[in-house]
Specification:
By secondary structure, the chain is of the alpha+beta class. Helices cover 42% and strands 25% of the residues. It is built from six helices and six strands. The chain has helices spanning 3-16, 23-30, 34-46, 81-90, 117-129, 152-164; strands spanning 51-54, 57-60, 68-75, 94-102, 106-114, 142-149. The strands form two sheets. Strands 3-6-4-5 form a four-stranded antiparallel beta sheet. 22% of the residues are buried.
Length: 171
């Protein structure tokens, strides 16, 4: 199969699935290396396809139903990361991404797309297994989260719960 045909098939797979698909599973399906798939995804993005890499794999960005999107500034210790993420998802939010301000590179954004305890558990397991540090370690625990939720009431509930744990960075 040519690379072009493989990329068309990858696009079909991403279109059919709402769940993230790992590079490893795509590599297995097409009998190529994981790195070949990573390269295919890069070429597909360069061609204008909106593909996001999440901790659980690749997803095709779809036009989402109207959601409230807001950003919060947080600060906490490493051991509080799970509590922070659980608060958001338990109160009806999706932790869309995390952003830190790097002194050399500027803003660094990591897509998370965590919308359930299961998602958070997988993310925390990955963090525990890897030797790579979470982005918030670059900034002494200070970071931003983009959060998506269905309405203003949900937003207020999330912010209130995070404030209760002193996770919201305030002046």
């Amino acid at each position: 199969m040519t690379g072009e045909k493989r990329r068309l098939k990858i696009e079909e797979i991403l279109n059919k699935n709402t769940e993230a698909i790992t590079a490893s599973s795509l590599a297995k399906e097409f009998s190529v290396s994981r790195q070949v798939i990573v390269g295919d995804i890069a070429l597909m993005r360069a061609a204008g396809l909106k593909i996001s890499a999440t901790p659980r794999g690749y997803v095709l960005d779809r036009e989402e139903e109207t959601q409230l999107v807001f950003t919060i500034a947080c600060k906490h210790e490493d051991e509080d990361m799970g509590t922070e993420l659980y608060i958001v998802v338990d109160n009806g939010g999706t932790v869309y991404d995390v952003t830190v301000e790097h002194p050399i590179y500027g803003e660094i954004v990591g897509e998370l797309r965590l919308s359930s305890r299961y998602d958070v558990d997988l993310f925390l397991k990955k963090v525990a297994e890897k030797t790579v540090q979470p982005l918030m370690r670059l900034t002494d625990g200070i970071h931003l989260h983009t959060i998506k939720c269905k309405d203003e009431e949900t937003k207020k509930r999330i912010i209130q719960a995070l404030k209760k744990e002193n996770f919201i960075l305030e002046e």
